[in-house]
Amino acid sequence: EGGGNMADSGEGDPGSLRGPGAGGLALLGLAPGAPSCPHGPALLFVKTSQGQEEGRRFYACSACRDRKDCNFFQWEDEKVSETRLAAREEYNRKHQPFFTHKQNVERYKNFVLLPLSKRRFCQECQQLLLPAEWEKHSDHQFLCDISTAQLKSPSQLLYPLENKKTNAQYLFADRSCQFLLNLIIDLGFRRVLSVGTPRLHEIIQSKASQEEDFRVRSLLLDIDFRYSQFYAEDEFCHYNMFNHYFFGGEAARETCRKFLYQDNGERVIMVTDPPFGGLVEALASSFKKLMAMWKETEKKGHNNQEMPIFWIFPYFFESRILEFFPSFSMMDYQVDYDNHALYKHGKTGRRQSPVRIFTNLTPSMIVLPEEEGYRFCAICQRYVSSGNQHCEICNSCTSKDGRRWKHCVLCKKCVKPSWFHCNNCNCCALQNHTCEKTDAGCFVCGKAGHKRSTCPSLSRP
Ligand code: SAH
Ligand code: ZN
Ligand code: ZN
Ligand code: ZN
Ligand code: ZN
User: Fold this and answer.
1) Are residues 47 and 89 in the same domain?
2) Are residues 326 and 400 in the same domain?
3) What's the 311 CA to ligand 2 centre distance in angstroms?
């Protein structure tokens, strides 16, 4: 059982309809006493039509947007029998990873004692194998001679879970990862809470073990449990960032709390790169809880400060993020990825990445590399893309995508270079757009003709 039957609900597939767009679903959030799926407490949703709540509220999995990954469903007012509750608990237990984190740590200790010739990694099970287990995996593909270097970069060893909507792992290109780390160091941070940034975590851990004077530490919070094979319990917590759920319970929560506690001025920054299809409101609510955790660690308080954050997300989510975090600003830096051809740097002739850094740090402190074409705007007091011209009328550098935007006097704002003012629509649009008033635009990009779930700008696929 998956907690209920979607097929007879007659409500369609919540997993593909999320977001409060026209005729979509609204997230009501984490309700006290919510039922749980294998991914922790489920989130409460309601169907909407023209912005109005419509119909029965229901619970669905917080983490999985694809029903194939988790089909949990329950009406808010549904009476669930004792038998079904017990069956559900059993189901949730069964759907936890085979080995515990503790067992994986033990296995790792044994693994590194093996000579190179006996170090195997099963590619099908995505698991380090001990010799006694070879037999069981004999008809699986495996890698041999796993070196210490390979163990130190698990993000290269594990395949990225990009086929699944649920995980959507897009790994930073080296250049972007190095840039982030250098920025963090230059800003004087000593601890990085890496939420869904395994590659950043990995270069920090790797440097820390190799360079004696490297002082930065990282704690990885991620839903991808495969990482527990490579990191100790104070280096990795199995965590769901859509419902702030620690799979390891109070002990894991305590690990995180301890990490956030800054002794002798070791400043903490949180860096996160969530799946883009994710629910901004659910993420924001979890991040606020992590911020609160940070705040509580210091009894005297941080003089009304917020935990510093880098939230890495596409620029077209700017207004959504600012809704929840008014103190954030968006940096022009384009974050590049390894396994996404479209999101590599524009300078090499490929498309430009739409992914940016949102931060609550003072923008002028975020120094962007001049050799990659960024410059400092003295009026805006921040680094901007070279193509981002300061508009005298808006009095700011208005481009969001790195291209030079142009000011429209009628719209009283800067618009994309490819847009023209349309007198019919009374706003700027593409030359070949069809004039019609549509207020049912996509929730993500604002364009008409599709919904958030099929938005082409989200096709990190
Ligand atoms: N660019 C980053 C990876 C970002 S991909 C890097 O190179 O380090 C998104 C990450 O978020 C993945 O590691 C994925 O496992 C994780 N993730 C996806 N859903 C999550 C969830 N519900 N809770 C926590 N982490 C999640
Ligand atoms: Zn689930
Ligand atoms: Zn196997
Ligand atoms: Zn302007
Ligand atoms: Zn215009």
Assistant:
1) yes
2) no
3) 24
282-314 exposure pattern, b = at least 16 Cβ within 10 A, e = fewer: bbbbbbeebbebbeebeeeeeeeeebbbbbbbb
Of 383, 414, 441, the position where a domain reaches its end is 383
Count of CB atoms situated within 10 Å of the CB of 414:
23
pLDDT of residue 159: 86
Is there a single domain that holds both residue 412 and residue 399? yes
Point out the ligand nearest to the CA of residue 66: 2
Q: Which two tokens stand for residue 155?
A: 């993000």
Q: Which residues of 45-66 are buried (b: 16+ CB within 10 A; e: fewer)?
A: bbbbeeeeeeeeebbbbbbbbb
> Which atom of ligand 1 is nearest the CA belonging to 240?
23
d(CA 391, ligand 5 centre) in Å: 15
What the block records as the tokens of 450 is 């599709």
Take atom 10 of ligand 1 and give the residue whose Cα is closest: 196
Q: Which two tokens stand for residue 313?
A: 């997300």
Ligand nearest to the CA of residue 143, numbered in listed order: 3
Distance CA 314, CA 13 (A): 25
Domain assignment present for residue 433? The answer is: no
CA distance 406 to 296: 46
Centre of ligand 5 to C-alpha 429, Å, is 8
Residue 129 lies in a domain: yes
Q: Is the pTM for the entire model greater than 0.85?
A: yes
Considering every ligand atom, which ligand is closest to the CA of 247? 1
Cα 421 to ligand 4 centre (Å): 14
Q: Is 73 in the same domain as 90?
A: yes
**For residue 280, how far is its CA from the centre of ligand 4 (angstroms)?**
28
Predicted local distance difference test score (pLDDT) of residue 17: 37
Q: Which listed ligand is nearest to 414 at the C-alpha?
A: 4
Is there a single domain that holds both residue 182 and residue 116?
no
pLDDT along the chain (461 residues), means of 10: 29 35 74 94 89 85 88 94 96 95 98 97 96 96 96 92 66 95 97 98 96 95 97 98 97 96 85 89 97 83 82 95 97 88 51 90 97 95 95 96 93 94 91 72 64 58 35
CA 448 to ligand 5 center in whole angstroms: 18
- Ligand 1 pocket: which residues have CB below 6 Å? 63, 167-172, 196-200, 222-224, 239-242, 273-275
Q: How far apart are CA 392 and CA 382, in angstroms?
A: 16
Counted residue by residue, the chain has a size of: 461
Please report the pLDDT score of residue 172 as a whole number.
Answer: 94
Q: What is the DSSP letter of 337?
A: B
Please report the pLDDT score of residue 8 as a whole number.
26
Residues 272 and 186 in one domain: yes
Best residue for ligand 1 mutational test, from 167, 176, 227 (most atoms within 8 Å of Cβ): 167
Say how far residue 293 (Cα) sits from the centre of its chain.
Answer: 19
Report the nearest-CA residue for atom 5 of ligand 1: 169
